[in-house]
Hints:
This protein is an alpha/beta fold and 421 residues long. It has helices at residues 2-11, 23-31, 50-63, 92-106, 113-125, 175-183, 199-208, 252-267, 274-280, 297-302, 315-326, 344-348, 371-377, 390-396, 411-420, and strands at residues 40-45, 68-71, 84-85, 88-89, 132-136, 154-157, 190-193, 215-218, 223-228, 232-237, 240-245, 291-292, 306-309, 332-336, 356-359, 384-386, 404-408.
Amino acid sequence: MRLQIILKKLQKLHPKEIDLSLERCKELCKKLGNPQDKIEVISVLGTNGKNSTISAMLAILKEANFNCNVYTSPHILKINERFVFNNKELSDEELADLFEEVEGINNNNPITFFEILTASFFYKAAQYPKNINLVEAGLFHRFDATNIIKQNLASVVTSISKDHLDWLPKNEQTIEKIVFEKTSTLLNSNIIVAKQGSDETMNCIKKTISQNQSNKIFFNKHFSYSVCENNFFYYEDKLGELKLQMPNIKGQFQLENISTAIATLRILDLEIKKEHIQKGVTKISDLARLQEIKSGKLKELVKKNKLIVDGSHNEDGARVLNEYLQSLDCNKHVIVGMMSNKRHEKYISYFKNITSLTTVDIPNQPNAISGKDLVKKFKNLPNVKYQPNILEAIKSINLKEGDILLITGSLYLAGEVLSLN
Length: 421
């Protein structure tokens, strides 16, 4: 209860949910003693794959007995997920204590919710100066609150695609502009660039960071992976080749994220050994990223059929999600709910050979598009219908033996699914 009270207070400190600027966070961190200058950071930015890449790095680092602090957003089930210190989420009481102390120093000055959360993370992280901090950038990067650090161990650029276009002027809603916002202010250290969805995007990144003096590591040029038989894949970079078991998370795109994580840790010369990587890739925890639900209330409704929840919500996420679905030889049923500011028709256009599609409302999200409006946008697709909620949607689908049910379109919807389950 105390945590909920302080969270409501923090959300009222600024009239806007997002107000892209660095000054408010810088000013608060100055009052906090500039904790962001006292920690070792691996910055992770991009559009898709940030959380998965961080999860893979964390799993490997834990195998190598490193203590890590982790800052990610948004959370899926509870805000504690965003605040990991010494490899462990803060409790409600610890988080409430942290927020109350930081807000006491902030003294009701205007600051967005994300900015004060970021300052709070840096403040707590400075208490563990020897830990490695895995920090995910928010909306963009140039004016993101996480971009107030002056030096870091590395900047990891995951897959970049079109998303959050409503924050850009109509004439600037291009991949070039998005790449610029995310990569033009990267620090001079190490830059590791993951596999991109197109050559155009990769070339945009290379052009934008061309004057940056960092050590630059690119997918395919400096590191790569390949899939082999018998549930193994190979990772390769200048240090040699690793034969690895397939990870415990689904989808070939996750091999891209895991390879980027391995490349980052190996370039930093942290004395990560082969066995740390081999064990780490089988112990990755990644909520709502092609997560199979194997027990619980919703699982009982689908009985022996597979139930998967995935928080993808933009076109590149839809592309890689469909690649996974196409690798399965079965009927695929999809339940989808989305936020209003997404490119709904573009998102759903990537899904091929779907047996049924059901739209739903996302509860407690005023910025979500209603399932009724969403079904109108998808009216030209076969077997499309609307149901008001997840439970009714699942009950309405005629699942046959061996069918798969996927729930997707939003991390907020994914959180609702996991909470219901």
